[in-house]
Amino acid sequence: MRSGRGTTNILVVLPDAIIVAGDSRVTAYSGEIRPEEKKIKFISNNPPTRATWCQDRYDAHKMLTHIKRVAKASHSFDAILDSAKKYTETTNCDRGFGSFLCSVEPTTGELSAYLVFHNPVVEHETNCSEKEEECYCQNLARFHGCRKLKLGVYTLGSGGQFAIDSLSEKYGFQYKGDDPSASWCSDGEKAQDLGIHDLENARADVFSALLAAAFDDPLSGVPFRGV
After folding, report:
1. CATH number of the domain at 9-217, out of 3.40.50.620, 1.20.120.80, 3.60.20.10, 3.30.1310.10?
2. What is the enclosing helix (H) or strand (E) of 57?
3. Above 90 in pLDDT, residue 224?
4. Which of 107, 133, 142, 168 sits CB 3.0–4.6 Å from 29 for a disulfide?
5. Inter-helix orientation angle 160-171/199-216, to 10°
6. Is 210 helix (H, G, I), strand (E, B) or coil?
7. What does the CA dihedral 97, 37, 219, 217 come to, rounded to 10 degrees?
8. Which domain of life is it from (predicted)?
């Protein structure tokens, strides 16, 4: 697996809880390590909403700032979700982003998580180095969307597969592969089949998976933070 610029987001959706965690390392396209930055962002307290981010920092932050503004004005998760979906449909960002958006369903009061993503597909010209900071090749298509995630284990970022490998070894589920439209999204089996019954132990396992990703992917680093 080719290492990217270094992000690991982990999401575990359980029947009565959601665990979300991420590293806090930011790596520039040039490979420069930037100041530490939290990858889990506050969106709203009413309704309680948090979101992760990965891939391009600029594009991801534009999306998160947009939905945070909607959250402040509406206090509605339906409005937040709709604005996130519309943003992925209308943005002209060139590099793409992925995000886990977690909140409480307004009608049922149940915890829920969504994958928000926007990924351009690029056809590189013959003389292109394919380095993101130097590439100006044409985008052929854009995968984008906002989909609800079932009970299970998910990861985003260049360290995501290393993290889910660690969790699959711990819980014995089969890794189902990457969804090319969902920016390194790795989908595990249903959480109730994983034997995850103790929340604190599960949190510890998630942090261990982050640490494993930091060791296995040179650009995914600690320190990391999670909630």
Report:
1. 3.60.20.10
2. helix 57-74
3. no
4. 133
5. 140
6. helix
7. -80
8. Eukaryota
